[in-house]
Amino acid sequence: MPASAIPIETTTPTSSNLSDEDDEDEEEWEGDEDSTETVIGKQYKNPRNSPSTLCPRDEEQATLLGQKCSRKCSSDEDCKSKKKKCLCDGLCGMSCIKPDRECPEPEQISYGTVTVTGKLFGDRVTYSCQHGYHVVGLQSRTCQADGQWARTAPSCKQNIYCLAPPTIDHARHNALPEQTTFDLDSTLQYFCHNGYVTNGFPRAKCLAIDGQASWYGPDISCEPRSCGAPQDISHGWHAGECYTYGCRINYHCAEGFELVGKAERFCQADGMWSPKELPTCVPVQCSIPENPRYGKAIYTSCSYNSVVSYECKYGYTLVGEATRRCGADRKWSGSSPVCKEINCGHPGRLWNGWLENIEGGTGLGASIIFRCHEGMTLEGNTSTVCQIDGKWRYALPKCLAPCVVPQVSQVVPHGEALNVECDAQYEFLASSFPVTCNNGTWTHIPKCQPARCKHLPKSPKHGMVIAPKIDHGMKAKFTCKDGFELKGNELVECSFGNWTGELPICQEVYCPFPGLIDNGKILLVGNMGLYDYRPYVRKITNNKQIMYDCDKGYILDEGPPGATCVGGKWSPSELPKCVLGQHPRLRWSRRRRSLLLENFKRKFAKLNKSIDSLKRTRRALKSTSSSRTLGLGYKSGGSSINLRRNNKKFNNDITFEKEKKKKNKQRGPCPNLPSEPYVNIEIIKPSRDKNNTYGSGTIVKIACGKGYDLNMPENKTAKCVRGKWRPVAPACLIQPCYTPKIDNGIFKLISADQTSNVLTADVNQPLNDTISISNGELVAFSCNAGYNVQGSSNLKCWHGEWTVTTLPECIPAPCLLPQIQNGQYLSGYRAGLTIVNGSGVSFQCDEGYLISTSNQIECALGELFPHNPSCIPHLGISSNISKIFDSPHYLGGRDIVKGGDITDLGYGASIKSCAPPAKVQGSLVYRNGEPLVDNEQNFPDGTEVTFNCIESIMGEKTTWKIICEDGSWIGRSLNCDIEDLLTARAINNNTCIFRNQEPNVLSFYNDQEIREEVVEFPSGAVLISRCKDIGKYAMIGPNKRRCMGGEWDGLKPSCFGLNQENDYSMEKPPTILFRHQNGPIAQSNDGKLIVYPGTVLHMECLWMKRFGNPRWNVSHDYRKYPEGWTADPGRDSQLEYRLSIYHASKDDSGVFTCETPARHTHSVEIIVKAVHCPVVPQRRGLTVNTQSTKMNTQLKFICVNGNALIGAQEITCLPSGNWSAPFPVCESIECGEVGGILPSHLRVTIVSREVGGRAQFSCVPGFGIRGPHETICLTTGEWATPYPTCVEVQCDNPGIPENGYIQGTGPFKAGDVVQFNCNTDYMMEGQPIVACQDNGRWSGPLPKCAQACSYPGTTISGRMSSVKFYYKIGENITFTCDDGYLLNGAAMLKCLKNGKWSNAIPTCILNPSERK
Fold first, then answer.
1. CATH 2.10.70 fits 679-734, yes or no
2. Identical fold at 404-450 and 1064-1170?
3. Fold of 463-508
4. In Å, how far are 482, 503, 504, 596 from 464, measured between CA atoms?
């Protein structure tokens, strides 16, 4: 034993002491202790709240090294036992330690000595080795709190051992930091630091290769653990893109919101964000709004963007903004409104009448009755009420006076029309409106005037008649056509409806022979050419033409070349003269001038005319040229005929210079045609003139665009002839319009274009389909009496079409039901409602009144028959009735009723009485409130009979009533039997069974859809039903049913499919499809379509276009809605007839009906309403995807911080304004231990027990995981299954490299290492060591052994450039000698292909100079 060693005395503790220590140790070992403990009334601090910086605790590393840590502490007070102290225990940090606990006797090591300072906690044992040996392992070990020496004892080795292992970033191994030497075959396990994930091979092993010890491995990388993208918060966002361990992000809120919670979160080592709770963006809060005087403010929240609405008490109206919104500046928008008292004020003076009940005031709800003086007719409403908008419901009526018939002095009421008959030869010139009494005056005074002629006098043959008017005394003038003269009176006069005088005739006139021409003749122009005109030709009719021609050698000198027969006279009337003439001087063509000059001199030498004669000849040439021009038009001419007869031709080389210039002028280009976008010009034949597009001879064809017509027949061409277009210059004219044929419709012009050449009509006269309407003119459409306009009432002509999508129609007008004094309508009708054309309504009178007309009211083209249904007092039927109405009789405030209107309708003929009702035992019977007299037989229509049961011992009393109506008793008769009554009441408390089996029907109870097939409901329960799609199905039966007496009242509703479900059958009502934008729509439980304000709604009525156009009917006239066949892409324009509601408002609410040409209809009731559900409450840990409460909004809830969601994950805002389910809550849930009995060799490490937390699986060395590597804590508090298993991992034999060998034999399990070696003179290419991995594969491929040169040896007193065991083929090494030595041999050696060196190694010899 070395001198420095300290002897160790060991003592064996008694059994009692041992048990006490064990007990104390068990108490002090570390466990789960998250809360403060109280022991024997003493409060202990939680050591986790004050960790030590001088002695940090690293339990994970301690566990890897096999050290068991005791209770952690920060002071001695934290230890349960007074025998223990809070001391530093190495990796375990500050722990509760028993200072007097001993470690066992340390074992001795070979070739070394052990020095011990003691065996108590903190003592050390130090190891040293003999000379030539080194301590491999820990040189000193410490006595730990668990009573064990740290780690294992070292060993003494000579040369081969490994030094400090490799260092990996963010990783550590399971050896103590102070250990710097390791024995061969030592294996270290590497682990990434907390917060990093291990990737690769985590082991390192100390191996000896070629006599040298080195570490193999590890091959790992430690990547920071990802926490994943952090969750965004509602109305906010996060800044930062780094989501791995150690990264931080910051949260921000949108405008109008403020952050509640910590704005910064960081990624923890366990892959979770901290803090776990997300901050929230809560709306900024505005101050509580004040209630206006006489009103109140209604609000559910004062947060940002919330709305407060104001309403006033009854009798007050709101002045100012009805709603205000909370802004981001914490202030309400606008200013606070006020409540102002509603007062409609005095309605004004009623002329010829008075106001009744005006003294009752003019505030909200006040009513006024309008009364007219006797004899006056009230036009308007008989009463009015002050409405909530501060206006009277109806304006002041008019009290209109009667009129006195002229010359008769009879008084007729306002509105009566006169029928005027005049004597013979006189007529009443009435306008389109009859003579009507209007408030005491006639619309126009009736007057009989001399009769007008019914039509114009008959026109004579070949003549016409002209007359400005056909009134009495007006004259008509006769005229004849050209070529005819009038024989008879030129004028006739209209006298008392007849034209006076004989009608004239038109006699044809002829032109006489004009006379003979000396040295000439007259030619008559005919259809086939020119003919000689002889005096015997008598009948030369109007417009016939003659030509004058001179004999040979003569020319026309004075006078016209021809004449025309006009009205029996020749025009012009003078005759020309033929004079002897000579040919003019001609201008020769330059090409043959020299050749023909002599020939022409000889030809004209015989003329021998003087220069003066030549001048006269030139003047004659001018006249001849005119004659030729006219003659060519009629296929002949004067001089040209002579030239043809003498066979003289001058068209080869000689031309007249003047004639050439005139011809060139006539053949100029035509005017350019318009180049508008609606004109398509096609050149059929171009001109020879390349410089002009429309030169002479050009033939063009014109096509006009839509809305334009060509001014010439279609496919007709135009030709440019002598600078003009023939037959006319082509042009495209705007198409006119013609009024369509619409039954019962009337078209009139609103404005006419005076500059247009298109025929227009009188503004006040109706148009027919033969009158054209110019482009841009407006036409007003109206209907005959008894019909209403459906569609646009104004049409504009635009390029041949009317600017409306569909033409208007005239539909029969409905009738408005009037108020019946002392009576009421039957079948639910009431005054103010309308009934359609052809329908009827019945009414009845109150007691004491009788029906004065038929009780059936019929509607015919907007008029009720009878016109004035009324109830009169019951006076008995006698001859006095007719006397009542013989003289004018006026009803106060009503229209005047004439005598014959009532007696002609069979007064009182339809009233029937009832037989006596059956008696009920145990009851008292009353008639109209009075006890019924026995043997009473007279029960007229309207009699009420009441039965009262005598009160029983139990106090039960029953009453019912029946009414006599048209000879029959109406009402249910009961009895007074107590048992029957009790049975009936018991039945009323029974439950009802609902069977949800009707296809296409949805039923609702308490705003929730019934999805079960069979449900039992309590008595009184109410079910609401509708079709699953109100546009595709129609319901039969009631939509509301109640459970009464164990049964459902009413028929069970059913839904049938419309035409889309029946292959678009024409005999089915049309299907209506709904498409919407900019807002939601929804179907209410009772089958209405709820539309959010501002939404754009398209309703497609399905009908085959080839069978006609359907039409939409709307129950109100708030506005006109565009309708027509859809043109949207992707839609069927041959099937979908659309009506669109743009930016829906409350006034658009109503019933929309589509009617097909087959008269089948389908209606949808639309309610425009802003539906919002209650605001989502703020609940801890609960986040929602949106704060919107609008109808159809879907809320999706999730819980944060590992909490579990209890309730519905998604809810929807229903059209009733309720959410489809209650709001969920978040509860904290933790998972316990993983599984029960885990599979063998499987280890588990719990990272977090919260919902979403992870537990990681691993296997013991030699085994690999099959299955998931981790499990998740579910919201149910259970760990996700299945769990993985551990299977033994074996790798296949890696093989032996060629020219090498392997160290190690199989089988090869996970973690085993194989070392490869090469034979002598071979070197290795690749990894010399591979390891068997957990996946059953080797960590690297098989290396190769390549031929090489071995180490050549060294030179004494010299150096070589590279010292290695082996050298590659072709590698060079160089040698050098120390100072004072000379190299003897080759300075460079090369490794040859055969593995030999190119030379022997050189030697270093002493420099001879150095020897001296």
1. yes
2. no
3. Complement Module; domain 1 (2.10.70)
4. 12, 11, 11, 66
How does pLDDT run across 1128-1159, given as a tens digit for each residue? 888 899 999 999 999 999 999 999 999 999 88
Residue closest to 29 by CA, chosen among 89, 69, 79: 69
Dihedral angle over CA of 815, 818, 820, 824, nearest 10: 60
- CATH fold label, 1064-1170: Immunoglobulin-like (2.60.40)
**What is the mean pLDDT, run by run of 10 residues, along the chain of 1412 residues?**
35 35 43 38 43 75 77 81 82 84 86 87 88 84 85 82 86 81 83 84 82 82 88 83 90 84 89 88 88 90 86 86 88 91 89 87 85 88 84 90 79 83 80 77 82 87 86 89 87 89 88 88 82 82 87 84 88 88 52 48 46 44 36 35 35 39 59 83 84 86 86 83 88 88 87 44 74 86 88 84 83 87 76 80 82 78 83 57 32 30 35 77 78 80 80 54 78 61 50 90 91 88 93 92 86 92 90 93 94 94 92 93 92 93 93 93 94 86 88 89 79 92 82 81 84 84 84 84 87 89 81 83 83 81 88 83 84 90 89 88 84 54
Structure tokens at 362: 């003019």
Indicate the CATH number of 15-158 among 1.20.1560.10, 2.10.70.10, 3.40.50.300, 3.40.190.10.
Answer: 2.10.70.10
Residues 6+ apart with CB under 8 A from 643: 649, 650
Q: pLDDT tens, 989-1006?
A: 578 999 998 999 999 998
> Quick one: tokens of 1033?
């199905």
CA dihedral (1276, 1277, 1281, 1284) in degrees, to 10, reads: 170
Token output for 633: 């038009």
Positions of E strands within 1081-1189: 1081-1083, 1089-1091, 1096-1102, 1111-1114, 1123-1125, 1136-1141, 1150-1155, 1161-1168, 1182-1184
What is the CATH T-level fold of the domain 295-341, as seen in this structure? Complement Module; domain 1 (2.10.70)
Top-level class of domain 737-812 = mainly beta
Q: Which CATH superfamily is domain 353-400 in?
A: Complement Module, domain 1 (2.10.70.10)
- Bridge partners (DSSP) listed for residue 1314: 1330
The highest-level CATH class for domain 404-450 is mainly beta
Of 944, 950, 962, 943, the C-alpha closest to 924 is 950
Structure tokens at 1388: 């460079």
CATH architecture of 1242-1288: Ribbon (2.10)
Question: What's 507-567 look like in SS3?
Answer: EECCECCCCCCCCEEEEEECCCCEEECCCCCCCECCCCEEEEEECCCEEEEECCCEEEEEC
C-alpha 134: how far from its chain's center?
A: 85
Q: Which helix (H) or strand (E) holds 69?
A: none
Which pTM was predicted?
0.31
List of residues 6+ apart from 934 with CB closer than 8 A: none
Contacts with 902 (C-beta within 8 Å, 6 or more apart), sequence order: 852, 853, 872, 881, 885
Closest C-alpha among 1226, 1221, 1222 to residue 1206 = 1226
Continuous segment of H or E residues that includes residue 275: none
DSSP states of 1059-1091: GGGGTT-TTSPPPEEEEEESS-EEE-TTS-EEE
Q: In this structure, how many other beta carbons lie within 10 angstroms of the beta carbon of residue 701?
A: 17
